[in-house]
Amino acid sequence: MAQNTNLRVYLDNNYPKTSGRLPDGVVKVLQGPFALWFKIGYGRYLFGLLIMIAIPILIDPEIIPAFEGLDSPIPFIQGGFGIRVLVVTGIWILLALGLNVVVGMAGLLDLGYVAFFMLGAYTTAFMTSSGGDDQFHIVVWPNIASLPFAVLVCVLAGVALGIPTLRLRGDYLAIVTLGFHEIVRQTANNLTITNGSRGIPGIERPDLGFPESIGGFSTEFGVLSSHTYWLFLLIPAIILAVIMIRHLEDSRIGRYWTAIREDEVAASAMGVPVVKMKVLAFAIGASTSGVAGWIFAGYATFISPNNFPLLYSILILCAVVIGGLGSISGAVLGAILVTGLPEVVREASGGQTVFGFDPETGRIAIFGFLLIVVMIFRPGGLLAPRRRRVELSEAGAAEGVIVDESAGKQKDQLAGSATLTETRQKGDT
Amino acid sequence: MDCNSALIGPQIVTGLILGFLYALIALGYTMVYGVLKLINFAHDVIFATGGIFVFYAFGLWFGITDPVAGPELVLTVTVALLAGGIASAVSAAALERFAYRPLRRRNAARLSYLITAIGASFFMTYMYQQDFLLGTGKRQFPNYMDRQSAIFDSLMGTRVTDIMFLLVITSIVCLVILDRFINQTRTGRSIRALSEDITASQLMGVNIDRVIVTTFVVGGFFAGIAGVLYGMRFGNVVFNMGFIPGIKAFTAAVLGGIGNIRGAMLGALALGLIENVSSVCIGSEWKNVIAFSVLVLVLVFKPTGLMGERMGG
After folding, report:
1. What is the pTM assigned to this prediction?
2. Which residues of chain A does B133 touch, with a Cβ-Cβ cutoff of 8 Å?
3. Where are the beta strands (DSSP E) in A193-293?
4. For labelling, which of A209, A395, B153, B265 has a CA lying 20 to 30 Å from the CA of B87?
5. DSSP 3-state assignment of A385?
């Protein structure tokens, strides 16, 4: 699909209310960068990569030897603490991206998503030497070799859980996945091989084979022992996941998912292989949590069932819903809001309660409340995907997507934006 | 598998007692599901609200923390059960009014209801956890009924305390009242009508908003009573006390056939038995795993449950 590069038309179609108030001069100035944004195509991912590399350097300038002794300009999340927050947020972004496929795109409510994360982490622990004690592993491989298996185990678990349960009515699925999480967690809590609730200590960190020093700064023997290097592992993982999901969304599979989400009976009548596509959504969603689990196991070096409480499954759901169901940028934003923000608040408050709320547990109360508010007032979430916005109007959909490069068909555009405005209001009330 | 037969007898008794507690909670799930076809995930907090309210009212405000006796005991217990029931009923009505009704007005997707319910559940649970309410640890429940005195010293080898006996009696009374209410009153008939066909009943002049609130209130009331009984039986309340009993009660409702009130009672007793007897045979640390596995198996092989999904008896 040829992308429309006229900013005014884009604004009229997507933000009719805002567009009306924007003077022509501003639009003209912004037109250049806007057109460039579409022209660079996949260069956008490179752009994202640059920003994401810049962030850790901003937060902790000392990771570059030349900047030794410099202070970070960012308050509250600077230095090693800031980097740790970023790593945890990055892991959660991966999880939110995966859950977004399941809940946002295919419309399957999965309340046990962290169970897959947990399976990924435990698979890594079982395959990697840990704690100098042989009882916790099946094989002893270098950490990096366990990555494909962590993903594979998660995908297989997704299929195994999906095949029997995805035939059920939608709301039963929620409770079955919730039960699945408890079953996995309690099993890890009770078995000897998982060392019960004491967990598995001393998991080896991945050796990515970096040389001892790159460009003058030490990579600490190529082992990802410093928090910063985890970011350089997480960032490509997130970008790859985004590219994969973006392509899936625009493919036939993505359209199948939309069809199933909107009307399962109609989709099945039109020949969509409903159960197969649902199982696929489950498996693909589980795969990113496999990667996240692998990263978490190596990063934390210690895992126990207590790292994967049920409420994390719910918090990730909060992230996806608040950010915008079905929206990739929404999932990223949601994960940042749900994990990054409370950490910053906690640091800023110095461990004190904020308005009587403890930052760790109070966030769950607040995000729970936000779930209700979002569902009532803004069902599309903070960053509703464009496709979903158009879908919200059945009548306006046909006109709403009219995108005309030449300014000649002003009338049609006006008609289109009017219907979209109307739809928006209908959706908001 | 080494089922010690000497241990099974006592487990049957405690399992049934637990089952009666589940039954009271399961009623709320099954009624709301019957009427709205909605899993009310927030029902577990509504259950907890009853216990927590009585903890506040009796323990902190009235200061009745020592065992009382005679007519005073009867009065205290009755007031406690009613107070817990009413507190939960009010919270259930508020939940319906402020979370679910706006969604119904908008004709929202089913997914929205579920997400809202989860939001409500976690909002309330973690509000209770904040220091200005319950805090993180267990709080001792007011000990107005003697926890030691036992009515049966050895019933099939187990000691049945007065509180356990009260729990069973209260449950049976509540279940009978509800069964009569649903099957014999005018409001009950409206509830049954809604569970059959919501549009048709609206056309027949049923005030559906009022009936839906009634459903929530009745379910909430019984859950509140269960919350108080839970506090008395286990001697403490904790901010997330509703979670495990809630999900077990839901399992029970599904086991019996969700939407079916008698099914919920039967399913709850069956689940209490399965859970406790299997903890002798397999080990009590697997108790929750077994309960959830039962849920998954029932949903996969017999999604309509033991007694089907029809609401009326």
Report:
1. 0.80
2. none
3. 213-214, 217-218
4. B265
5. coil
Inspect the interface and report whether the beta carbons of B122 and A365 lie closer than 8 Å.
yes
Task: For residue A190, list chain B residues with Cβ-Cβ distance below 8 A.
Answer: 283, 285-286, 289
Q: Nearest-CA residue of chain A relative to B112?
A: A375
CA distance A114 to chain B (A): 16
Choose the closest CB to A372 out of B119, B136, B288. B119
Cβ–Cβ gap B303/A168 under 8 Å = yes
Asked if A93 and A331 count as a contact pair (C-beta separation under 8 A), the reply is yes
Chain A partners of B119 at a C-beta cutoff of 8 Å? 318, 367-372, 375
Burial class (CB in 10 A: 0-12, 13-18, 19+), B176: exposed
Q: Which of B252, B255, B192, B247 is nearest to B34 (CA)?
A: B192
Residue A184: closest C-alpha in chain B: B289
Mutate which of B287, B296, B300, B302 to test chain A, going by most A C-beta atoms within 10 A?
Answer: B296
Burial B179-191 (b: 16+ CB within 10 A, else e): beebeeeeebbbb
Q: Do B131 and A375 touch (CB under 8 A)?
A: no
Asked whether the beta carbons of residue A361 and residue B247 sit closer than 8 angstroms, the reply is no
Return the DSSP state at A2.
P
Length of chain B, in residues: 313
Q: How many CB atoms lie within 10 A of CB B273?
A: 18
For chains A and B, count residue pairs whose Cβ atoms are closer than 8 Å. Answer: 142
Q: How far apart are CA B294 and CA B275, in angstroms?
A: 10
Chain B residue with minimum CA distance to A365: B123
Q: How many residues does this entry show for chain A?
A: 429
| Shortest CA gap B149–chain A (Å) | 35
Terminal Cα distance for chain B, rounded: 39
**CA dist., res. A131 & res. A198, Å (int):** 13
Question: What type of residue is A88?
Answer: V
Interatomic CA distance for residues A172 and B33, integer angstroms: 11
Q: Residue A204's closest CA among A297, A342, A107, A102? A: A297
Q: Which of A404, A399, A407, A381 is nearest to A320 (CA)?
A: A381
Q: Which residues of A touch B250 (CB under 8 A)?
A: 175
Which residues of chain B neighbour A186 with C-beta distances below 8 Å? 285-286, 288-289
List the single residue in A with minimal CA-CA distance to B126: A365
pLDDT in tens, chain B (313 residues): 566 777 787 888 888 999 999 999 999 999 998 888 888 889 999 999 999 999 988 877 877 777 777 888 888 889 999 999 999 999 999 999 999 999 888 888 778 888 898 899 989 998 888 877 887 888 888 887 777 777 777 777 777 888 888 999 999 999 999 989 988 999 999 998 988 888 898 898 889 899 999 999 999 999 999 999 999 988 889 988 888 899 889 889 888 888 888 888 899 999 999 888 888 888 778 888 888 888 888 887 887 777 777 765 5
Answer whether B232's CB lies under 8 Å from B141's CB. yes
CA separation for the pair B159, A324 (Å, rounded): 54
Please give the residue of chain B at the shortest CA–CA distance from A356.
B132
